[in-house]
Amino acid sequence: MWPTTRSVYLHNNRLRNTGLPPNTFHGSEAITTLSLSSNQLRYLPPSLPASLERLHLQNNLISKVPRGALSLQTQLRELYLQHNQLTDSGLDATTFSKLSSLEYLDLSHNQLATVPEGLPGNLTILHLGRNCIRHVEAIRLHKAKGLRYLLLQHNKLEASALPAGTLRPLRALHTLHLYGNRLERVPPALPRHLQALVMPHNRVAALGARDLVSARALTELNLAYNRLASAHVHPGAFRRLRALRSLDLAGNQLSRLPEGLPASLRSLRLQRNQLRTLEPEQLAGLNKLRELNLAHNRLRVGDIEPGAWHELQALQVLDLSHNELSFVPPDLPEALEELYLQANRISHVGPEAFLSTPHLRALSLRANRLHMTSIAAEAFRGLAHLRVVDTAENLEQVLIQLPRKGKEP
């Protein structure tokens, strides 16, 4: 039908299976991209071209992949089946097993209760988010040893859903997405080369000394919006993660910073906890940290011990908004470029408030208790890089004069 056509786009129509008879693609051996997305198909069309490399079937009504429907597509590299009505009974052990070139498989937003069988060994990305998966069987993953990205967010995974050893065969796994499940602990025996573990919005209430020991290559760890309390985070929980660059613990129940944070950290997010103190020992060794978010806690200036910022030599962004600060904390890091202090209790900014931060570019003092004369005229002297100061929503309009661009202090 299309002897030389390489790409066919039939998406956003009203196609049904009756509108695609078995001979529709006869003589179409050159087609590499076929888009049938956003139609009304209920099962995979028969006799798809064997030359396909990309097949788009998302946003249909597909509940079944007939046996053998994909048996000839050995060159298929990308298969999009998200936003359909697939259940476990609509797939079988041979559905994907012949797809020896398949690298990307998207089955998200369906009704699957288990990981499909027969996953091909060349698979790199498997997207299973927004299904009904309650358990992950190791045998379903053992052939997909090249898998680098496994996305299981927003399923129904609980504590027993990922028993020890389930993910161990995935030696190439780079990123594991588990957010929005019901997990009460970090999965045991994580793959050794895993670099990103993303599992916010679960029910993790504790971190033991060895919970993360097998994932020493982690560069990103996101445990935001779980149930972690300081008393149940072991002092050595993070100590061996010597490659960790980003740690997100926002939205937990921490009353103090975790101990043993790795010196490799670049970003540390602790907003929306119950922090009441900052001690030099808690931030010791974090001389590569560039971003620190402490917003929405219960910090007062007196809770920040002298020298707390001393080792944060690389810190460029500091968010202390929505705390209980009555004035600008002293001796802030010299490299600081952005400082967020909105929604505190600051009523006065003295002439020496920013002496330690000559590189400051942006400052937010919004929604504090400032009056028209609350900020000393000399407060911004020497801040040659300062370009933005937000003083809106205070008790009175606050007028300030920024340093002139290029003018020496």
UniProtKB/TrEMBL annotation:
SMART domains named in the record: LRR_BAC, LRR_SD22, LRR_TYP
Keywords, sorted A to Z: Leucine-rich repeat, Repeat
Pfam families in UniProt: LRR_1 (PF00560), LRR_8 (PF13855)
Keyword Repeat carried by entry: yes
Alphabetical list of SUPFAM superfamilies matching this protein: L domain-like
Entry-linked InterPro entries: Leu-rich_rpt (IPR001611), Leu-rich_rpt_typical-subtyp (IPR003591), LRR_dom_sf (IPR032675), SLRP (IPR050333)
Protein name as catalogued: Podocan-like 1
Organism of provenance: Rattus norvegicus (Rat)
Gene: Podnl1
